[in-house]
Each structure stands twice: as structure tokens, then as C-alpha cells.
């Protein structure tokens, strides 16, 4: 079972029993969504930005415009930290103090580089799109030269990471168990609804199988 080494950077301090450094578990959490949050500092101001990503092995790809200040900053610094979170349930306790949530979260730390080799850059764009909807790259027009050149792609090598997971019920004080107050968990999940086709589609253009599979898997 391969794990990331625990360091002062990725060590989980609070709620350590819910932490894991197992690479397989971390990759599973990363692969179950496509939206991450990236932290950086601009003009002495801390900023956090959501963005789409794709994972291939131990590399995470993100993309943006050539003048995207987040990406420009990260390339200058050479390091990045990103996080993803899945909300799996609301944990409603008898006491206000013990309300919580069930979740799966990952924080990644890694070195940053600009992707310049054309083949890797195109593969990275494919990775990001397919991470959002698996297999959908085969249904779309590829970026033309102008679009390709106007897009900045960045690779974040996962040097270390950690995950934190809560998947349990209410933890109330024993003396509160006799209170006439409801306690329990409201499960949560991300749901996809039936695709809505654009009204100006050409006749005979059907919803791609990749889209239908995605909806079916998340309905």
C-alpha cells in the first residue's frame, strides 16, 4: 500500500484519525470531481480561486488564459497547493456544538511547470475535459491554432498530499442522549439531470453516449 510520506507540510493535525496518506484513496477522491480550489498570493493579498482540473498519474493539469494572474503567480513561485472537497452529508446533532458534515477532502502540494510541448499540451486539455465528462473529448472540435496558442496550461506534480474523511453519524455528549431532540444524518450527493440540448442544433445531432453515461452514473 503506497503512501505519501508524512511531513510538516501535509500532516493532518486536527482530527488526525480521519486522515490518510494512501495514494490510491487520495487519487479516488481527486478523480470523483473535476473542480478544485487553488490558493495563491497576489500583491500581498491571499486569494482562492476555483478551477477545473484533470489528473494523469501524479500530475494535475489546469488551464487558463495567458494573462491569468493566478497561473502567472504560480509559475513565478514554482509551487502550488490545491484542495478538493466532496460534501457527503449533513450531520445534525442534538446540540449545536456537535453539528458537523460528512465529507471527503484532499490537499495537494506540488511543483509547477508550464506545459509547452504541443503534444503534451493537447493531451492535457483532453485530460481536463475528459476528467469533467469521461470520453467527451471525442465528441468535440479540437482547439484551433488561435485557441491553442491563447491557452496557458500548467502541470502540478503531486509531491505530497493528504486526505481527510468523515463518514459517520452523530457524536453527541452522553448526557444529551435522553433529550427529546432529533439527531441524524442527511445524505448528500451531486446529481445530474437530463441533458438539455441547445435549440439551434442541426437536425440529427443526438446526445453523445459519453454524456448519457455521465448522467446515468450521477442520476
From TrEMBL:
SUPFAM superfamilies with a match to the protein in the record: FMN-binding split barrel
Cross-referenced InterPro entries: Pyridox_Oxase-rel, Split_barrel_FMN-bd
Name this polypeptide is given: Nitroimidazol reductase NimA, pyridoxamine 5'-phosphate oxidase superfamily
Species of provenance: Aquimarina amphilecti
Lineage start: Bacteria, Pseudomonadati, Bacteroidota, Flavobacteriia, Flavobacteriales
Amino acid at each position: 500500500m503506497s503512501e505519501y510520506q508524512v511531513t510538516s507540510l501535509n500532516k493532518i493535525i486536527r482530527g488526525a484519525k480521519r486522515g490518510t496518506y494512501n495514494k490510491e484513496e487520495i487519487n479516488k477522491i481527486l478523480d470523483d470531481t473535476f473542480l478544485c480550489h487553488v490558493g495563491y498570493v497576489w500583491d500581498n493579498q491571499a486569494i482562492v480561486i476555483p478551477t477545473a482540473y484533470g489528473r494523469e498519474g501524479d500530475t494535475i493539469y489546469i488551464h487558463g488564459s495567458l494573462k491569468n494572474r493566478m497561473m502567472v503567480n504560480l509559475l513565478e513561485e514554482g509551487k502550488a497547493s490545491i484542495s478538493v472537497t466532496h460534501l457527503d452529508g449533513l450531520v445534525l446533532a442534538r446540540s449545536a456544538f456537535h453539528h458537523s458534515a460528512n465529507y471527503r477532502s484532499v490537499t495537494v502540494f506540488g511543483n509547477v511547470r508550464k506545459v509547452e510541448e504541443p503534444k503534451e499540451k493537447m493531451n492535457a486539455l483532453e485530460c481536463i475535459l475528459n476528467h469533467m465528462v469521461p470520453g467527451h473529448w471525442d465528441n468535440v472540435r479540437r482547439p484551433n491554432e488561435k485557441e491553442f496558442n491563447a491557452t496557458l496550461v500548467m502541470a502540478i506534480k503531486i509531491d505530497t498530499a493528504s486526505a481527510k474523511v468523515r463518514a459517520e453519524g452523530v457524536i453527541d455528549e452522553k448526557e444529551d442522549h435522553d433529550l427529546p431532540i432529533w439527531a441524524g444524518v442527511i445524505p448528500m450527493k451531486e446529481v445530474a439531470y437530463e441533458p438539455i440540448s441547445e435549440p439551434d442544433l442541426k437536425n440529427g445531432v443526438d446526445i453523445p453516449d459519453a454524456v448519457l453515461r455521465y448522467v446515468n452514473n450521477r442520476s
